[in-house]
Amino acid sequence: MPDTTTAAYVIDRIVANTLTYSLLLAAIGTLSMAFIELVKGVTGLRRYFHRREFNRWMQDPASRKETMILTTGGVRYENVLFEQPIERMLGQIQAAANLSLEFPDRYPNAYAFFAKEDLEVKKMQTAARHRPDSELWADFAERTARAGVTAKAGARLEEESRAAQQARVRLGNLIARRLDAFQNRTQYLWARGNQLAAVSTAALLTAYVLTRNKDITGLEDFIALLCLSLLAGMVAPIAKDVVSAISGIRTRA
């Protein structure tokens, strides 16, 4: 049977070496994240990213202008909106969408954008006999907002109220799903960009540390440096968890 003392010594050395490398990678990961956060804070990268994604999503300038009026009070204050995290930014856009839904006659361009999915569905359903919800609700809201409605017209509007309210509910759900899709896509792209930046920065720091201790003299050394740097870059963001796990093992031992 193998000597348990020898086995314990080997395991302890493996854990010690792993802990040493994990501490190095954890330090590289921490430095990388700190550097990325510094760059984002100094350059306003979140603001540019959110503005770009918003403009790609809402391409009509008139719709964007009305939405900015409803969210920040004007285009000149749009940075206030785009500087916010995606959850808070979407909360403001949701409020703007609700206002355009309540008053489609006051904000026709914003309403047309938020409700355009309903019109696209109508085009695909060529055999549909019903009016699109966006047209039904907009017509009802505009007529109820008019002054001097006659008694006869008022009775007719009352009859149409139920259908219009149902159309509004469907539009509200449609707008909510569209905003969710925009939020999910933006969050995904932002998270992937941060992950790529973290891995790249950690890989560059690892390559710098390795080249300080060893000269790169040939192609094989360069390939090994590249592979080790990429591997370290992928492991660095989670190295702190590895350090915690290994430290717990050594403490219990």
Q: What attributes characterize this protein structure?
A:
single chain, 253 residues, mainly alpha, 11 helices, elongated
How does this model look, in words?
With 253 residues, the protein is mainly alpha-helical. It contains eleven helices and no strands.
List the helices and strands and how they pair.
Blueprint: H1 4-43, H2 45-57, H3 61-72, H4 78-82, H5 86-102, H6 108-114, H7 116-124, H8 133-144, H9 151-213, H10 219-235, H11 239-252
Helix content: over 70%
The average pLDDT is: 75
The run of helices and strands is HHHHHHHHHHH
Oligomerization: single chain
Gap between N and C termini: 22 Å
Report the radius of gyration as a whole number of Å.
29 Å
Task: Give the uncertain stretches in residue-range form.
Answer: none
Quote the beta fraction: under 5%
Morphology call = elongated
- Count of DSSP helices? 11
Main sheet specs: none
User: How many individual β-strands?
Assistant: 0
Structural class: mainly alpha
Quickly describe the structure.
Helix content is 83%, strand content 0%.
